[in-house]
Design a protein that fits this description.
This protein has helices spanning 26-43, 65-79, 107-123, 142-160, 164-174, 179-186, 190-199, 202-212; strands spanning 11-17, 48-52, 57-62, 85-91, 95-98, 103-105, 133-136. It is of the alpha+beta class. The strands form two sheets. The chain has a five-stranded mixed sheet with strand order 2-3-1-4-7. The longest helix is centred in the last third of the chain and has 19 residues, at 142-160. The two termini are 24 Å apart.
């Protein structure tokens, strides 16, 4: 008899704009936030579409960890440089409390809430100040969760250490734009884009995003 494939539990994603209350143009920020979430919903496989909830926070449910991470990448790159976002991802069961308004609960959301608090706490420390993303999965092997967290720490460090131009290049390339088109968008030459991809770790970050985006 062949082994039955076990479908992994869904992953809840919670995103929160960093220091949103001090932003000068709150309405423009909210509009950009809505557009970023809508783009993530359009581009990434999702169980329950991500919605903006109370304050400057959004949440959604995804079939895989990779899909949830891809959604976080889309939202973060779409909002930069206007704002940055922190993310908490949690795996577990999801309970639908109100299907009309998209209100959910359950272990996945509890884990995601714990994760976003972890990311915020780590960002307060000098050695992990670039931390923006954390993952909590109580039912997974601790070594697996630790490996994912380490990869996310490294990716957050690379992205957080990039200049504004390099992060704009990263976003353009992540969305599949050609280097010469990205060069036009940011106002530099295609050769300068190529240099930054190699020198600033943009190429490494893109590969890391691709690999993380394929996690089950």
């Amino acid at each position: 008899m062949s082994d039955l494939k076990v479908t992994p539990s869904p992953v809840a994603l919670i995103g929160d704009i960093v220091e949103s209350r001090t932003h000068r143009e709150r309405q423009a920020l909210h509009d950009a936030f809505e557009a970023a979430v809508a783009r993530a919903n359009a581009e990434v496989p999702i169980d329950d579409p991500a919605v903006i909830t109370v304050g400057d926070e959004f949440q959604g449910v995804y079939p895989t960890l990779g899909a949830a991470l891809r959604a976080s990448f889309v939202v973060r790159t779409e909002l930069f440089p206007r704002a940055d976002v922190r993310f908490g991802l949690g795996r577990g069961d999801v309970t639908t409390l109100d299907p009309v308004r998209g209100i959910h609960d359950g272990p996945a959301y509890w884990a995601a809430r714990e994760a976003i608090t972890l990311a915020e706490d780590r960002a307060q420390r000098a050695q992990t100040r670039t931390s923006r993303t954390a993952y909590v999965a109580p039912d997974e092997p601790p070594a697996t969760v630790a490996a994912v967290r380490a990869a996310l720490d490294c990716l957050d460090f690379m992205v957080g250490s990039m200049s504004t131009t390099s992060r704009e290049i990263l976003g353009g390339l992540m969305h599949g734009h050609a280097q010469h088109d990205v060069a036009d968008q940011v106002g530099i030459s295609p050769s300068a884009v190529s240099q930054r991809v190699r020198r600033d770790g943009i190429g490494v970050a893109l590969e890391a995003m691709t690999t993380l985006g394929e996690l089950p």
